Structures are given as structure tokens and as C-alpha cells.
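S.,

Sequence below, as promised.
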Amino acid sequence: MRSCTACSSGTTNQADVASLNAYWYSRNPISWLLLPLSWLFCALVWVRRSAYRQGWIKVHRLPVPVIVIGNISVGGTGKTPMVAWMAAYLLQRGRRPGIVSRGYGGKAPSWPRAVAPDSDPALVGDEPLVLAQRTGCPVWVGPDRVAAARALLAAAPCDIVVSDDGMQHYALGRDLEIAVIDGSRRLGNGRCLPAGPLRELPSRLSQVDLLVCNGAELSEGEFAMRLQTQGLVNLRDPQLTQELEQWAGREVIAVAGIGNPQRFFEMLRNYGMQVDERPFTDHHVFRPADLPANDPRPVIMTEKDAVKCRLFARHNDWFVPVRAQLNGAFTERLEQLLRSPADG
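The prediction came back faster than expected:
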């Protein structure tokens, strides 16, 4: 049996996830009531962006090109795998990329801060740690993207910077913008926070250089991205791996503290597993009590959650790493943009 504390934590998180999905991805009374606040939010966003575009607030240019990868909705679009793909692609082209990120959820005593593969996710955030482990590139985090990018360039011989989730951080000048959207949830009810999931109006997507759709059907002007699973990896012993196909028919407990937990749960079902869903809010800080103590069923989680659970993982806890796949049309267009004068 899970402890009362664990049950309370899990129930609260699941209720939070269900509540957000209920009013951010439909037109409903709560969303209508919040609409005036949404209009105010949109107006403030427009004024802020206009201030940067008109030069009233300074935009800082780095001595190297900057690629910004982000989205206009809150969480769950697949931008972290996209950042990892971009880093690998640039390395293959002979570039020396570095990554900057907000470090959301990190509680470091000072910023900016370097992220090593063995950093504490409680200090630097979960997504930057995944990127540091996955890419091998230098990663720096901090609320001030400009300061983080300058610290990165001072510490490592990078000739291009990739900014993770940086579309709304206009103080950092950019040479290329890539927006990632969720192919199944799209833009939700199309409203800005707090009435909907959007950070900016949908028209913002028409101003980016590349628009990437993670799964499902594409709309005009979008490039397809698919997330390819890499099998199961044991948290206690990363050398121990298994094929997902071997788990067809098994009962598993699936935990996911990501922006769109249902995508993860459906992926496991597509491999034939019987899934007991345990959704948590995005960037949830996992504790030992969040994982069932006396349940014989294996626990499966995302790579983003695994970096926070590894210290107290049990022998039957597993995670599923994923890799982004993009087609030739995307890489061809990306090549054209990288060869432009903005590439230096």
C-alpha cells in the first residue's frame, strides 16, 4: 500500500492535470470567465514584444548565431527532443553548439550555472539535465538567457547557441526561430493564459522560420516530427535494457510528470501494455513516496522524470528514452537557412 502522503500527492497531481486539460483544451464556463484576464495577458504580451521590436528595450546580440527553439503553448510539445536533435545535427555539420535554458524548477543559489551530466536536477532543472546527458554539449541555465549565453561562450569554445524554450525571451537576439506544436492537442481552445494554454496569440506562429508539428496530421507550412522510442532502460542499472515489444500484455504502472502525460500513456498502450496511469503536473518534483512501494508491477516513466527518481529508484523502475525524427524536407530547409548571411 502507498502511504497516505503518497496517495494525497498523487491524487492532487492527477486532479491538477485533469483540471488543466478540462478548461485549456475546450470552450467551457471557466474559460469564458477567465477571458477578460486572457485579453489583458495578450495585450501585455503584445506591448512587451513591440517594445523590443521598436528598440525601446534592448535586444542583445551574441558574437555567434543563435537558434531559438520553443513554443507558444504551455508544456508538452516535444521541444526538448527537438533541441537534442538540433545539437546532434549541428555536431554532424562540424559546428560546436552550446545550449542555454531557463532551468525551470531549479533552485540553484546563483545564476547562471553550468549543467553537468551528474548535476542535481533540483538545482538546475530536469530538462537541462536531460540535454546535458543526451547531447554531450555544454549547457548553461539561468532566468536571464543573455547572461547564461554569455557565460556559456566564456566557458566553452562554442560557435553557435541553441536556446531551449526561448521564444518569449526577446532580450536574446536570434538568427533562427523554430516553433514546435503538439499535433494532437494543437493550440487547445486558442486562448491565451489563463483562459487557455497559449503564451502568445496564434498569429505568432506565422512569424517563425520553421514550424514543426509533433505527431498527428499536419497543417499547411508545418514540418513533421516523430518521437522514436529507444526501448526500456532500468533506472538502477542503465546497462540493463529491454525491447518495448517484449512487454506486450504486461500490467505496468506509468508515471509521467510532463506537459502531456496522455501521449506517454498511449505510447505504452500501443505496445500492448495494460497501463495504470499516474499523471503528475509538468516538472513535478518526485519523492520516494510518489512511486508505489509494495506493488509488484513494474514502474515505467519518461526520461525527464527518471533524472529526478534515479537516487531512490528500485530494481523494477524503468524509463523510455525517445529521439526526435525529422524528414528530409525539414533538413533541406534548415540547411538553406543555416547557409544564409545570418549564419555568419
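The CA atoms of residues 39 and 192 lie 8 Å apart.

Coffee later?
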